[in-house]
Amino acid sequence: MLKFFKDIKGDKVIWIVVVILCIFSLLAVYSSTGMLAYKKQHGNTEYYLFKHLMILLFGLALMYGTHRVRYTYYSRISQIGLFLTFPLLLVTLISGTHLNEANRWLTVPIVNLTFQSSDVAKLFLIMYLARVLSKKQELVQDFRKGFLPVIIPVVMVTILILPANFSTAAILFVTCIVLMFIGRISLKYMLSLALMGLLAIVMIYFLATSFPTLFPRGSTWVSRINHFVHKKEADPDATFQVDQAKIAIVQGGILGKSPGKSTQRNFLPHPYSDFIFAIIIEEYGLIGGSFVLLLYLTLFFRVIRIAGRCQGNFGSLLSIGIGFSLVFQALINMAVAVNLFPVTGQTLPLVSMGGTSIWFTSISLGIILSVSRVTEIETKDGTEVDILREPTLNIKQTAPAG
């Protein structure tokens, strides 16, 4: 056991943040699954607690295993992974498991394990983007040789994700824009891309309004946006989730009701996933909710620190891309819970109840820790062994050229 703890490398603050988030996750999931246990497990409230504990422990094992692999290997893995991503997303879109008016899930035969192919695509795309940007630093101002090889896979992946999961596609697209900005892609290309993204969102909104059957979840998207914008005229039935989350937050106050004493868990449709942050505030108050927010911000701060100290371009871009994606998703989830953003269905990374989503989050954090681990070794030894090091990208002074 002592040897195991000695083998844990990488940023210790990130490890501590992960453990604390896992503890919050266990407490919140156990508290919020009471009604679900009575409906599906004959009142066995410990069922989901132990199931979630096993998922978290396996996630930590995945994180440990991933962080022991040298991060430069992920550059090669990303090529194969992105190649497999396209057929995976196509199969999901055509014949995936139907849930909430869309095909989002794939089921692995024999083991009967379901997962969202968008989680796989998101991770491989960020890895691949970091690879291409790191290798094309001298060509980033060239449209054909520098910009097109970067933007084509981004557009293809987001288009394949969009019909079933608009919010995930949007978060991934924004993450890629941030990564391209840090990777010194020309500013004029960046502005054009951002403008095209905004126009695409407006066009999708009007198409979904005029032709509700065009997109699998088109009517849901339009309904959520309309109810968020026109709050006073909104139908109470359509805003039920948000209203119950507001009640939970108000009842939590500053100090909260204390662990396990939430009442809104009995009314919120998904208190253990999409709206788990509202349950956390109800039970732990504004102080508890602020502490969770601080944990994610601390995670992002440490990721920026790792990216700034990394010897190579690929490690810097990889860690900042994955870290931004996770923290941005967390902020979106929390913004939805406090009604600062329309309902999206995004989970709170490493806290919401789930299976493969937690495992992919764990793998992502393990990759960041791998960058940190190798950076620590290189800093101590004074060596620079990153195969993607040249030309050097200074993350602290990065700015795209006009």
Report on this model:
The chain has 402 residues and is mostly helical. It has one domain. Helix content is 67%, strand content 3%. It contains 14 helices and 3 strands. The protein has helices at residues 2-7, 12-32, 34-40, 46-67, 73-95, 117-135, 143-161, 166-182, 187-210, 218-229, 240-252, 276-309, 313-337, 356-381; strands spanning 97-99, 102-108, 113-116. The chain has a 3-stranded antiparallel β-sheet. β1 and β2 form a beta hairpin. It is globular. The termini are far apart. Residues 383-392 and 396-402 have low confidence and may be disordered.
- What share of the residues lie within helices? 55-70%
Which strands sit side by side, in order, in the main sheet? 1-2-3
The number of helical segments is 14
Q: Provide the residue-averaged pLDDT.
A: 83
The termini sit apart by 54 Å
The major β-sheet equals: 3 strands, antiparallel
Radius of gyration: 21 Å
Categorize the overall geometry.
globular
Query: Which structural class do you get from the secondary structure elements?
Result: mainly alpha
Strand content: under 5%
The total domain count is 1
Number of strands: 3
Give the SSE order as H and E letters. Answer: HHHHHEEEHHHHHHHHH
Low-confidence stretches: 383-392, 396-402
SSE blueprint:
Elements: H1 2-7, H2 12-32, H3 34-40, H4 46-67, H5 73-95, E1 97-99, E2 102-108, E3 113-116, H6 117-135, H7 143-161, H8 166-182, H9 187-210, H10 218-229, H11 240-252, H12 276-309, H13 313-337, H14 356-381
Antiparallel strand pairs: 1-2, 2-3
Helix pairs in contact: 2-4, 2-12, 4-14, 5-6, 5-7, 6-7, 6-8, 6-13, 7-8, 8-9, 8-13, 9-10, 11-12, 12-13, 12-14, 13-14
